[in-house]
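Working notes for the structural subgroup meeting. M.R. asked for a predicted model of this chain before we commit to crystallization trials. I am recording the input and output together here so anyone reviewing the notebook later can reproduce the run.

Input as submitted:
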Amino acid sequence: MDKYNYEKTANYCYKGTDVLINKLNIPNVEDLFNAERFLVSLRIAAFNDNPLKGNFDFEYLKSIHKYLFQDIYIWAGDIRNCNISKQDLFCLSDYIENYAKEIFYKLKEEKYFIEYDNETTLEKLVELFADINALHPFREGNGRSQRVFIEMLAKINGVYLDLTSVSKKDMIIASHDSINGNYEKLRNMFKSNSHFLNDKERKKYIELYCSIDIKKIVED
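Returned structure, recorded in token form:
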């Protein structure tokens, strides 16, 4: 259930294997999985201590992915050039840029959810998470990158969201449901792993995460 299916013509894997070509030249799936998990966990910890400021657009999501996976894959931060599925077929690679434009244009038009009340903001975050999951722009590492992005966006809106304790299985099931238009599991997951921040805490995260341009919007 947690394994990607992908086009066999894609050039991401060592010949004759399902092992992603990696900077560490690790030749088997299990060792690569363990190394990736360890190195990305270090990058996430470093990112939390010193986050990248950004515009909460597609470029920002790509920057987060590049930061987290830079030690492992030469294509970190690049959109995939093959089609992938995990129960569901994700956005076809030829349409990733166009679909991403729609997703992040809508986010910008809604002023990054800053004008909504807490409950509406949480619902909007669920919908955005589902959209980015359906986009699935990277060959690997989509879940961790989108989680970091959404958690940061939540915090500048006064919602402390932490999905790190959610099991991989539960996340896959909830994401699968959301692709098919059912947000209930994802909604419950967000509600049970979040709480609302006071204004002082929210402003702290605005200072940490937002570029100057976004800061002007969310503080107006």
